[in-house]
Amino acid sequence: MMNEWWEALDVAGRIFACIAIPSTVLLVIQIVLNLLGIGMEGDVDIPDADGDGDIDFNDYVLDDGFRFFTVRGIIAFLAVLGWTGLTMLSYKNGLALTLTVSVAAGFAAMFVIALMFRLFMKLQNDGTSDIVNAVGKTGTVYLTVPSARGGKGKVNVVFQDRLTELDAITDDSVSLPYGTEIEVIGVSGQNTVIVSKQK
């Protein structure tokens, strides 16, 4: 059955299928991991849009918590692009129209993912959590934390029985890249924690 479906596809259809199927599998894995409280986001090499001399994911933060180019968003883009392309081709649409609609649908998916994540983070931040309670807790770096308080990064920390993403700075002499195990050693202001690499 699967063989017959694959053989019936033309070259463009097979390309869309090769994009859609793996990205959908990755998307499902991400959803399962997120339900288990395990994140899969990370930095991507992109231009230094904010001109701070440090190329990081904050360069594409449009405003607090609203990011287009996340691992989750890119995988959603590819999954929607692939399935939209296959659907368009199955209705005998031309390749140019198929590509246009597929790319537009992919970007729409990225936008929706970014919006949903922002709303989720707002709901999370609007709760009764007090970041002072994060002091002494451990977590992992989500967005690179520049060394010697050279800028803010983000960390994921479990406190008050939930996984929370927090702005973070460090006094460490080296930057803390994505995935680094950290400990919260203090608080700076109302919504920023001071972290150090876990010993």
Structure commentary:
The longest helix has 31 residues. α2 runs antiparallel to α3 and α3 runs antiparallel to α4. The chain is of the alpha+beta class and 199 residues long. It has a 5-stranded mixed barrel. Strands 1-2 form a two-stranded antiparallel ribbon. The chain has 2 domains: 124 residues, no CATH class; 67 residues, Beta Barrel (OB fold (Dihydrolipoamide Acetyltransferase, E2P)). It has 4 helices and 7 strands. 42% of the residues lie in helices and 21% in strands. β4 and β5 form a beta hairpin. About 13% of the residues have low confidence.
- SSE string, helix = H, strand = E? HHEEHHEEEEE
What is the total tally of β strands? 7
Helix content: 40-55%
End-to-end CA span: 54 Å
Low-confidence runs = 40-65
Mean pLDDT: 80
* Overall tally of domains: 2
Major beta sheet summary: 5 strands, mixed, barrel
Q: How are strands sequenced across the largest beta sheet?
A: 3-4-5-7-6
| Rg, Cα atoms, Å | 20 Å
Strand content: 15-25%
What's the total helix number?
4
Which secondary-structure class do the elements indicate? alpha+beta
Q: Label the overall shape.
A: elongated
List keywords for this structure.
199 residues, alpha+beta, OB fold (Dihydrolipoamide Acetyltransferase, E2P), 2 domains, five-stranded mixed β-barrel, 4 helices
Helices and strands in order, then pairings?
Blueprint: H1 2-8, H2 11-35, E1 61-63, E2 66-67, H3 71-90, H4 95-125, E3 138-143, E4 153-159, E5 162-170, E6 181-188, E7 192-197
Helix pairs in contact: 2-3, 3-4
In brief, what are we looking at here?
With 199 residues, the chain is an alpha+beta fold. It contains four helices and seven strands; from the N terminus they run ααββααβββββ.
